[in-house]
Amino acid sequence: MKSGSGPLPRLPGSRLQQRARKQLRDGGVIAYSTESCYGLGCRPLDARAIRRVLAIKARPNHKG
Known about the structure:
The protein is an alpha+beta fold.
């Protein structure tokens, strides 16, 4: 999702998964629900995406 985009609309599971995979492939960040809260995710080997997650969370780069 580009910066400033809103949440994803309700989509059938497979369409939502396809959109999330594309977002990750394109270096984006996704939000996902866990048992007790929401998490942020990106491709673990994409340094730029990791920096985006850290910026969203307002954490310094050395905490990544």
